[in-house]
Structure formats: C-alpha cells, structure tokens
Amino acid sequence: MEKEAIINEVVGIVRRYLPEGYKIYLFGSWAKGNALKTSDLDVGILGETAVSDDIMTKISREVQTISTLRGIDVVDLREKSDNFRKGILKYARLIKG
Fold first, then answer.
1. Which ranges of 1-97 would DSSP assign to H, the alpha helix?
2. CA distance 1 to 49
3. Is there a contact between 34 and 63 (Cβ–Cβ < 8 Å)?
4. pTM greater than 0.85
5. pLDDT digits (tens, 9 = 90+) for 64-95
6. pLDDT of 49-70, one tens digit each?
7. CA angle 70-83-71, nearest 5°?
8. Phi and psi for 96 in degrees, rounded to 5?
9. How many CB atoms lie within 10 A of CB 7?
10. CA quadruple 88, 89, 91, 92: dihedral sign
11. Is the Cβ–Cβ distance between 88 and 80 less than 8 Å?
C-alpha cells in the first residue's frame, strides 16, 4: 500500500472516533522525508482535551488492521510532555486539521 493511501486510511479511522476539532499530524521520519522502507508511521492527535483511553484503544486496534508491512503508531500528543509535544510539532506535518 502506498504512503498516502495508508495516511488516508489512518485519518479516516481517527475521524470516525473524534470530532473535527482534533488535528492529525504526521511526525517522525515520514514527516522529515527520510523514512526507510522499514520505517514505521507515526501519527499524532492533538485537541483541546485529551482523547479518552477507550477511544485511543479503539483507534489503535482499528489502525492495526490496515494492510501494510509497516508499523503504525498513533499517539495523543495532549498526553505527552510539553517538551516532547513541542519537539514533535517542530517537524510534524499537519495532515488533517
């Protein structure tokens, strides 16, 4: 599966569970443009409030069903430290907001 198709599937899954106010970011090597064929896909969700554990579990489980050999990690950036979040957002690519 192509990179953009995978990203679109992840966005679709997140949107099924969260309202439009949440932004979705691509971060890590894919956002920086130096991803290898084996690099995982890192996706961050950021809203005014944290995503509940129940919803994050549902999103993560559904994302794992995407047909790809790459790992896909989805994290709630609101649950991370300010320094971590700032570091991520510095190089992140907004994919839906």
1. 3-17, 29-32, 53-63, 82-91
2. 32
3. no
4. yes
5. 999 887 899 999 999 999 999 999 999 999 99
6. 999 999 999 999 999 999 887 8
7. 5
8. -160, 125
9. 19
10. positive
11. yes
